[in-house]
Amino acid sequence: MIYYAASILLILIGMYAVLVKKNIIKIVIGLSIIDSGVHLLFIAIGYVKDATAPIYSRPGLEAGQMVDPVPQALVLTAIVIGLAVTAVALSLVIRLYDHHKTLNINRIRKLKW
Questions:
Q1: What pTM was estimated for this model as a whole?
Q2: Residue 59 sits in which domain range?
Q3: pLDDT (0 to 100) of residue 13
Q4: DSSP designation for 52
């Protein structure tokens, strides 16, 4: 149950950063925090108390006594994709700073291309 609360807290902190902060780097960090919260939520959904991994199972175990490896594999893939998206977003932030000399989103909106 604590994992659900922690994941929801991470998602809410990230949403606060995305919605309230004006610095683009802080917005990208907020998106990364949201991503981490969703990963934790997926892992918490796939968690089974006192269960073992299917690869370490011994004969006679039922399906309820083993952890489902699919959420773990999906989260591992999502971590790699999230890292790539964060890298692209930060490279765009660098290009915006080079062009506009500011990272304040309100000032960038007011400028004409």
A1: 0.85
A2: 2-110
A3: 98
A4: B
